[in-house]
Amino acid sequence: MAAIMKEYIKRAKPVSSKRLTQKYNLGFSPATIRNEMKELEKMKYLKQPHTSAGRVPTEKAYRSYIKSIQEKEIEIPVKTKEREPEKAFKEITDKLAELSGGFAFGGIKEMDSFYQSGFSNLLREAFSEDEEIYKEITKIMEEFEKNFNSLFQQVEEDETRIFIGREDPFKKTKNLSIIISSCKMPKQKHGLLGIMGPMRMRYDYNLSLLNKLKKIIEEYE
């Protein structure tokens, strides 16, 4: 399963037993891998799009996968120089979009602020998927800013949550995932930082990146 997830996240193309045999030293024959993939399909961890010979992970597979991921050790050469909290938060949101290659958002509840960055990244990622994701992006972005404050109710203080597909707090998508983290701001303010991307996003890297930038925000004075 791990090899299938890794391959699909990287290439966004259905994964075949032949591809796995060629690229990964799994120690099994293509026939054995095919049988394993059929079993995973019966268990609803994989699905076969159209008439493709390959399979793609389902929501159930991603939920199982994120339980096993470990955060990466990453270095971020950034330290906000902004003295105003709103500008500092905007700077960090821009950096999150840049480093993740996804759509980033953030804001401070008490200041009723909302920042977003990297919408073009989201569209570019969707281009490698299918037309249905474009429709979902349009639907969710139409009301994203208006409903942003409702996200504060989705995470506890100092919590980071991952919403996969239909778990979307806005109930408008089944092919996107959202990672949200609550930030403890100075002077008792409540901040929120998050990433939205296709379900096949790099969860381990994005989770590590989000938590690193969150710490920078929380250390802001």
Kindly summarize this structure in a few lines.
The protein is α+β, with helices and mostly antiparallel strands and 221 residues long. It folds into 2 domains: 2-68, Arc Repressor Mutant, subunit A, CATH 1.10.10; 85-218, 2-Layer Sandwich (Beta-Lactamase), CATH 3.30.450.40. It contains 8 helices and 7 strands, in the order αααββααββααβββα.
Unreliable stretches covering 5 or more consecutive residues:
none
Tally of structural domains: 2
Number of strands: 7
Per CATH, the superfamily of the largest domain is GAF domain
What does this structure look like?
It is a single chain. Helix content is 42%, strand content 16%. The chain has 221 residues and is an alpha+beta fold. Strand 6 (176-184) and strand 7 (190-198) form a beta hairpin. Helix 5 runs antiparallel to helix 8. The longest helix has 16 residues, at 85-100. The protein is elongated.
List keywords for this structure.
221 residues; alpha+beta; Arc Repressor Mutant, subunit A; Beta-Lactamase; 2 domains; five-stranded antiparallel sheet; two-stranded antiparallel sheet
